[in-house]
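Quick one, T. Sequence first:
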Amino acid sequence: MVFQPGVSGNPSGKPSQGEQRARLLAKAAELAAPLGGYDALNAIERTLIEEAAALQLSKPKRNDERLRRANVTSRIMRDLIKRRGMNGKASAPAGGRLDAIKVSA
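C-alpha cells:
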C-alpha cells in the first residue's frame, strides 16, 4: 500500500471512548473467566481485573515496558487466583488459616 497525499491511512478514525470501554470489559471478562466470571467478582477484584485488561490492551513502545506489563498482569492474576481459587469461590484471608499468621510480641 502506497501513501497517497490527502487520503487518511485510518479511515475509521480513533476508537470512541465507548468502543475502548467495550474492548476493556471484553478483555476483563476473558481474564475473569477462570475465576467464576466477571459478575462473580467483588468491586476490588473487578478493579484489579480491569487494570490487568487495560495493561494487556496497551501497546508499549519499549521491550522493558512489555516485560513490566506482562509481570504486573501476571502478579494481578496470581493474587486473584490465590484469593479466589480456580473454582471461583472467594476464600478467607490467608486461605482460611489464621493460625498461619505469626504475631510478634
